[in-house]
Amino acid sequence: MTSRASVTAGARVVAVVLAAAVVAVGGQLMPGFYDATCPGLPSLVRRGMAQAVQKEARMGASVLRLFFHDCFVNGCDASILLDDTANSPGEKNAGPNANSVRGYEVIDDIKAHVEASCKATVSCADILALAARDAVNLLGGPSWTVQLGRRDGRDANQYAANQNLPPPDATLPDLLARFRSKGLDARDLTALSGAHTVGWARCATFRAHVYNSSGAAIDAAFAAGLRARACPPAGGGGDGNLAPLEQRAPAAFDNGYFKDLVARRVLLRSDQELYGGGGGATDALVRAYAADGAAFAADFAAAMVKMGSLALTGNSGEVRLNCRRVN
């Protein structure tokens, strides 16, 4: 049972990080950024995401992943939404994105409705930030106040996408270093990794972990089941076979992922590294979140705001009329 003290402590963390996130961008992001120019924006985004999740629950996890993979390259500037051009290879076909990131058409649809209501006003980056929040909440997770006022980037960066996004076999020191480079600490890393409480992964991304795990161990029976059911050996096909990232309730945003970590029953080595890997820098956080879903929810919401503050604001960038191309 969650104690009142733990919930209060979690809420206090949210409040502190919310304040820090706003200061980090000089106060240019604010919840009411569109109150006068597009007051119906939150409802438009929520409606679009509700329809998408109702049609396919997995889409909630996909849009959340889309936001993560955007923010970890050029910041949360919607550069991941840009299509390739003859002169600029986009991020969509970078190695970490090509076979795993989806949901572009959901953002396109929401953007079209927003443009019809508030032309040339709302950035694709802000739509994606709102959509990620709603995706989590529609799957049963927390909600939070999204700071708004992001501008869209004019350039995609396929090289940075290949370099910056953590691979599925990343070690804990590598993960910590990648997150620190974005101003995110061990608590942020652990909480944000909890996004893997929803969604699915391809056999190609977890084969090495279930066949030849080194460093972070895996439950033997769990690995054997995956080998038999979802992931044949290399050369045997099945690269695109899917398995849920969280075994208990893969369509519900809860703390089951952390319980799976403690039981060593997760698909990705990079996930298992959070518990028992690299000197145990995040072990205590994993145990805390496994025991207290409210604490995880509070820290996840705070970390999402913190990560979302990596933004273009003011006169930087532009407000794209079409999320797939610059104006």
Write out key terms for the chains shown.
single chain, Peroxidase, domain 1, 2 domains, 327 residues, Peroxidase, domain 2, globular, disordered N terminus, mainly alpha, two-stranded antiparallel sheet
Q: Main sheet?
A: 2 strands, antiparallel
Query: Which regions are unreliable across 5 or more consecutive residues at pLDDT < 50?
Result: 1-27
Q: If classified by CATH, what would the architecture of the largest domain be?
A: Orthogonal Bundle
The CATH top-level class label of the largest domain: Mainly Alpha
The first-to-last residue Cα distance is 52 Å
| Strand runs, count | 2
Specify Rg, calculated over alpha carbons. Answer: 19 Å
Write out the CATH superfamily name of the largest domain: Peroxidase, domain 2
Structural class computed from helices and strand pairing? mainly alpha
Domain unit count: 2
Global outline: globular
Please, how many helices?
Answer: 15
Order of helices and strands: HHHHHHHHHEHHEHHHH
Mean pLDDT, all residues? 90
Share of helix among residues? 40-55%
CATH fold node name of the largest domain: Peroxidase, domain 2
Biggest sheet strand order reads: 1-2
Strand content: under 5%
